[in-house]
Write a structure and sequence with these properties.
Strand order of the largest sheet: 1-9-8-5-4-3-2
Strand content: 35-45%
Oligomer: single chain
Number of domains: 1
Helix content: 10-25%
Number of strands: 9
Radius of gyration: 15 Å
Length: 166
C-alpha cells in the first residue's frame, strides 16, 4: 500500500524544525479529502479570511502544480507557486515551496518548507494534521513568528466549518 511507504509523520516530528496544527473535523475523510484536492473547494478555506483566493491550481500528482493567487484586504495580489511531492489519495498531500511544477527548483523560496496535510479516521469524523517541515530551526522559528499557528489554525477551522456542509 502506498501510504505504508512514507513514515508516519508523528514518529519523526522534530519540534525544533517542524510546526504542526491538528483538528478533528466532523466530516468523513472522503469529504475532507475533496476539500484538499479540488481547487474550487480549497479556495474556500486555504487562506485566512478576509484574504481570498482568486485563482488556484492543484494537480495532486508527484511534480504537479500547486498555485495560489491571494487577494489581500487592501487589494494587493500575491501569487505562490509550489509543487506536489506526493498524493496518497484520501490520506495525505505533501507539497513544497522549494520547487515548482515539474521538479523545477526555486531560487528563493518564501518559507523553505515541506507541507504535509494528513487525514486519518477518528471517532466523530476525521483527524486533520497539517505539518510544515523546515531544514533549519531558524526557518521554523521565522515561519512561526510570521503567524504559522494562527494562520494554519484559522484555515484548519475554516476547513472544519466547510467540510460538513459539502
Amino acid at each position: 500500500m502506498a501510504s505504508d511507504m512514507m513514515p508516519r509523520q508523528d514518529l519523526d516530528f522534530d519540534p525544533a524544525r517542524d510546526l504542526r496544527v491538528e483538528r478533528l473535523i466532523r466530516a468523513p475523510m472522503a469529504l475532507v479529502w475533496r476539500c484538499i484536492v479540488e481547487a474550487e473547494l480549497m479556495k474556500r478555506w486555504w487562506v485566512p479570511a478576509p484574504v481570498v483566493i482568486s485563482d488556484m491550481v492543484i494537480e495532486p500528482v508527484p511534480g504537479g502544480r500547486f498555485f495560489t493567487r491571494m487577494v489581500m484586504p487592501d487589494g494587493v495580489q500575491v501569487g505562490m507557486e509550489m509543487m506536489i511531492l506526493r498524493a496518497d489519495m484520501g490520506q495525505r498531500l505533501v507539497f513544497t515551496d522549494l520547487m515548482t511544477a515539474g521538479f523545477r527548483p526555486v531560487a528563493e523560496p518564501m518559507f523553505g518548507f515541506v507541507g504535509i496535510l494528513a487525514l486519518a479516521e477518528a471517532e466523530g469524523g476525521t483527524a486533520y494534521t497539517a505539518t510544515a517541515r523546515h531544514a533549519r530551526a531558524a526557518d521554523a522559528t521565522r515561519h512561526g513568528e510570521m503567524g504559522f499557528h494562527d494562520g494554519w489554525g484559522t484555515v484548519a477551522d475554516q476547513l472544519a466549518a466547510l467540510a460538513p456542509r459539502i
